Amino acid sequence: MGALSHIRILDLSRVLAGPWCTQNLADLGADVIKVERPETGDDTRHWGPPFARDAEGKETEETAYFIAINRNKRSITIDISKTEGQEIVRQLTAESDVVIENYKVGQLAKYGLDYQSLKKIKPNLIYCSITGFGQNGPYAHRPGYDFIVQGMGGFMSVTGEAEDFPGSSPQKAGVAIVDIFTGMYAATAILAAVVHRDHTGEGQYIDLALLDTQIAVMANVGSAYLCSNEVPRRWGNASPTIVPYQTLPTSDGWMIIGAGNDGQFRHFVTVGGEDHLANNPLFSTNPSRVENRDKLVPLLETMTRKKTKAEWIRMLEEAGVPCGPINDLSEVFANEQVQARGIQVDVPHHTVGIMKLVSSPMKLSATPVEIRFPPPTLGQHTDEILGERLNLSKHEIEVLKNKGAI
Question: For residues 87 and 61, what is the distance between their CA atoms, to the nearest angstrom?
Fold first, then answer.
């Protein structure tokens, strides 16, 4: 039994931040019912290619995007614009511990599905809203998009090639980090609210905003600005305070070097056959290397291009110099450490056959994470949930289908 196997979650969220939150809670054992629009479902069901392929290599309708964030959930289709659909959500709320949604501010109130309405049905309800800018403030009614918030929240101002690098520009992250971090914060907040409810019997409302999250995860960079009032600049893959702490080219790819002290720098250049650099007063201490990085880095690049990535990693690990490869995804999943940790898992799926998933990184000794079932097909569990939770007969379910409510 998962650690959260006693928790029921009604998931009204779509796309990434909300589903990322509920997938993590589902991985921990929570019973998550994913509410989707009839016929179309979650937007990410259509965000392809790529699509999963079946045993014969033919593309299915299952998009890689949807697969990544919806395992361990059951799907029910409900049209919340219809009176009957709204009533189903209310009845499911009465049987749930948590409701999570990411509609625009005020949008669910017109259906009577906002927190103030639903807590009348379930007084100890935990209700989590995820929006771009939160429930208050001059931007509250704006839609929120990860890419835009990465820019607004300062992340892109410090990400990308160094500002003095020819042709450099601000860059977004390669994955939607604001959505993902917001989902993680939401999961943490929900768990805190569950503990509070269990101690006091009191439910509560949780207000998560993408912009708030982006600013929070600026971490030491944000703190540095508040402490110094100096606006941080882009440094690319380099560090403003440590040299060399950056990417360097090899004869067949790139690697990361993190020589955090003078001893590690000496070991690095000695392994590369350029130990004289450690004795040069321009480079012998970290402050001098930072001051003279423009002179040192080209010399290091010439040195590192003489060997392959694998040769460098092996030699530097033996010398105790922090380093690592820059792997593409084929190299990631072929890596012996990744395989030893069981990061890729194969699960049965009734349209794909065997579906490849990335497992949860949470390793719990007493209540281990389990993939109980793969990402659901659209409305796969509608009849099951209505019968199990609301005790509706087959005839009553058929009537709702004919009305277009489900």
Answer: 30
